[in-house]
From TrEMBL:
Residues 30-265 form the Metallo-beta-lactamase domain. Coiled coil: none annotated. Its cofactor is Zn(2+). This is MBL fold metallo-hydrolase. Belongs to the metallo-beta-lactamase superfamily. GO terms for molecular function: hydrolase activity; metal ion binding. Pfam families: Lactamase_B. It comes from the Bacteria. Keywords: Hydrolase, Metal-binding, Zinc. It catalyses: 3',5'-cyclic CMP + H2O = CMP + H(+); 3',5'-cyclic UMP + H2O = UMP + H(+). Transmembrane segments: none annotated. SUPFAM superfamilies: Metallo-hydrolase/oxidoreductase (SSF56281). Counteracts the endogenous Pycsar antiviral defense system. Phosphodiesterase that enables metal-dependent hydrolysis of host cyclic nucleotide Pycsar defense signals such as cCMP and cUMP.
Amino acid sequence: MKLTMHCTGACKQLEILSLRGGKWRTVAFPGLFAMLEHPSKGLILFDTGYSPRFAEATRRLPYALYRWTTPVETGVHLTAAEHVRAAGYAPEDVTAVVISHFHADHICGLADFPNAKFICSQAGYDSVASLKGLAAVKRAVLPDLIPPDFKARAFWVEQCPEAALPAACRPFERGWDLFGDGSVTAVDLSGHAAHQIGVFLRGADGNPVLLGADASWSAQAVRENRLPSPPAFILFDGRQDYKRTFGNLVELHRRQPEMRLLFTHCAEAWELCGKEGIELL
Ligand SMILES: [Zn+2]
């Protein structure tokens, strides 16, 4: 199985908000997603990033508030579908999209993959499915980005077999084996969003890779055990859950300093974009 990272655009955010002790300067936050070329399950995406659909979904109030507070730079040439084509596939070839959570910057591309099943947490979906208007914007959810046939194509992680994770993943002990072969194991990373999931990918060298979505905004924050600034916690669904999940990541890094932790908005994961990719087991 091969993992590649791809960038769909970026927004701007204050560094001090994302990193305690950071500077009062705006930094670019990339919107990344991952592509997994699985030997028997085909092409799988982890999230889908931004697309011009973000502008469409935020044209009117109250959804425009999202666009005004988080200006996004993206384009047709940066969409997940274009990255799929550039990798030599058609969007129709994507068999599954694993959705970490339903914030707009992770699901803009869902509608571009007509044959994909949507693998996500049922509890996570249920917590946003009925949100509309201001209540949706407050949770960074844009209902128009969720395809109308979503539920018919959804595949809930909670229904996947539970599996013990290898010792290298401690303190994470159990997850959901998404494809029945141990190659991709989902874990609960609640906090940033309720029931957010990440996935451990089985590594070729016995060292797994974690796709951690938004459980941290950077690998640096985990290495240095620096939570986001207090005002940033307003953006999170669960303050205590965020701290618990973040603490688990810090512990994971302490035990396995060599493990790659790839987060959606992290500059280090961004550097992997356009590169060869990582061979996994
Ligand atoms: Zn998010």
